[in-house]
């Protein structure tokens, strides 16, 4: 069920209505049932698989926490961890290894579907097992609450990733109907729909034909497509996150921010702190912070190695293909360059610090260029397409993307960034700075009108559903 669709909005409204009509004790069970019904639209088998990993990690965490010996704790923890990871690897990577590397004809793995959202709910179940094993929290006594923290439908498919412990506390608080929360959530859903349907899908109409047939395009067409793509995926994924956060807020549940104006970051490190925030926070807490440590003298080398390892993991998480590994290596190269040149840049621009606007624009353009350069390996479907783009970026040829289309892309991106300037909170909407009620009402009416106008476009699936 696509978030940016009328059926989802009907499902959300129906779920909200029943949720607040029901008594306090039955609400968690109803919300769990609603989440499983939502997931069943993608496949009943996917529900069974998620229920299995949820049950395994729930039992494993309990045994690990209550075991009387250290060996018993480790054993129970490892059983849950290995089964959880094993299911994830089996369904996410065996198909890729079979069809892309081994190419064994007729083997069973070619018929295996990758369960949508498996990467994101596996993050939650792994994090829960690790936290309980480390005695950060006691294991949850209620399977209903734990299962709901894993499957809560607004954040099930592509995040934001929130700890089960934090979600369970909010579910137990069992907040009643609050009109201000529902209105605020509705505004965020509207902002997310605008990002997705007007901005992301508007860009996709022009650049998808380029990436689907790269051999027909050369030179500036490819350059425009790469730069436009980074705004498409940003508007697409942050739009999804806003709809998820807004939907949860209507139920009285607060989800963490996932994006916050990343292209306005001060440097590349700051960019990754603002981009897919909960994803990189998970990697930092559970992997980066637990990698090898050393003395102060070699701290820079160790930091560089740890960051490199994280980017390799991120690349493999997206997919076990050459494209994603090259994407990770390119991102790591720019990170190293940013990290090693920081002192030089501070000295270079020390005298012009008063020109804040100039430095901000320079930083914006630099980050945009670096992110667009690594998207060469992220967006194209195959390595051959990526290499073709790389070879023909600066070659001549007929321009199939017309001047009017370029003007439309530039106008759309500038309009998007202008609207973002009105956003104050990372989990806020675009008109927070506007104090006049009538002006806000007029702006929201304009957004609704634009959404109605673009509703006849063909559906474009959210980019991160594939992961």
| Morphology call | globular
Number of helices: 18
- The helix/strand series, from N terminus to C terminus, equals HHHHHHHHHHHHHHHHHH
Average predicted confidence as pLDDT: 87
What summary fits the major beta sheet?
none
Q: Estimate what percentage of residues fall within beta strands.
A: under 5%
Please provide the count of β strands.
0
The residue ranges in which pLDDT falls below 50 over 5 or more consecutive positions are: 98-105
Task: Give the N-terminus to C-terminus distance in angstroms.
Answer: 16 Å
Helix content: 55-70%
Q: Write down the Rg.
A: 23 Å
- What's the number of structural domains? 2
**Content-based structural category:** mainly alpha
Which properties best describe this structure?
18 helices, 2 domains, 467 residues, mainly alpha
Give the helix/strand layout:
Layout: H1 6-21, H2 27-40, H3 44-66, H4 70-102, H5 118-133, H6 143-151, H7 164-173, H8 179-212, H9 220-250, H10 268-274, H11 277-286, H12 299-318, H13 322-340, H14 342-348, H15 356-378, H16 383-392, H17 403-420, H18 437-454
């Amino acid at each position: 069920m696509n978030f940016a669709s009328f059926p989802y909005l009907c499902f959300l409204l129906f779920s909200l209505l029943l949720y607040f009509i029901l008594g306090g004790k039955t609400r968690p069970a109803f919300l769990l049932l609603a989440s499983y019904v939502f997931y069943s639209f993608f496949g009943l088998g996917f529900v069974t698989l998620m229920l299995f990993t949820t049950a395994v990690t729930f039992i494993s965490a309990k045994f690990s926490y209550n075991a009387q010996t250290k060996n018993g704790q480790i054993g129970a923890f490892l059983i849950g961890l290995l089964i959880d990871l094993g299911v994830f690897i089996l369904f996410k990577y065996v198909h890729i290894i079979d069809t892309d590397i081994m190419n064994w004809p007729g083997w069973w793995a070619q018929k295996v579907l990758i369960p949508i959202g498996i990467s994101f709910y596996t993050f939650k179940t792994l994090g829960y097992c690790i936290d309980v094993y480390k005695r950060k929290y006691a294991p949850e006594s209620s399977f209903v609450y734990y299962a709901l923290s894993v499957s809560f439908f607004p954040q099930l498919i592509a995040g934001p990733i929130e700890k089960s412990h934090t979600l369970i506390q909010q579910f137990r608080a069992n907040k009643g109907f609050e009109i201000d929360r529902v209105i605020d959530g509705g505004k965020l859903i509207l902002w997310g729909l605008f990002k997705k349907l007007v901005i992301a899908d508007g860009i996709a109409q022009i650049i998808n034909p380029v990436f689907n047939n790269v051999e027909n395009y050369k030179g500036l067409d490819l350059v425009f497509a790469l730069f436009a793509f980074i705004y498409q995926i940003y508007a697409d994924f942050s739009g999804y996150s806003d709809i998820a956060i807004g939907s949860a807020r209507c139920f009285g549940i607060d989800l963490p921010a996932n994006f916050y104006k990343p292209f306005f970051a001060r440097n590349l490190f700051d960019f990754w702190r603002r981009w897919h925030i909960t994803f990189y926070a998970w990697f930092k807490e559970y992997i980066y912070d637990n990698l090898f440590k050393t003395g102060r003298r070699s701290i820079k080398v160790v930091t560089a190695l740890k960051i490199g390892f994280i980017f390799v993991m991120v690349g493999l998480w997206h997919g076990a293909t050459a494209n994603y590994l090259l994407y990770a290596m390119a991102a790591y190269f720019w990170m190293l360059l940013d990290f090693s040149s920081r002192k030089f840049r501070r000295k270079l621009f020390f005298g012009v610090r008063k020109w804040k606007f100039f430095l901000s624009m320079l930083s914006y353009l630099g980050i945009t260029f670096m992110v667009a350069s690594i998207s060469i390996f992220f967006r194209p479907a195959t390595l051959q397409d990526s290499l073709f783009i790389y070879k023909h970026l600066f070659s001549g040829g007929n321009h199939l993307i017309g001047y009017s289309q370029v003007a439309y892309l530039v106008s759309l991106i500038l309009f998007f960034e202008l609207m973002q300037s009105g956003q104050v909170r990372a989990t806020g909407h675009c008109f927070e700075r506007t104090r006049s009620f009538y002006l806000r009402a007029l702006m929201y009416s304009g957004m609704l009108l634009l959404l109605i106008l673009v509703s006849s476009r063909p559906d474009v699936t959210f980019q991160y559903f594939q992961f």
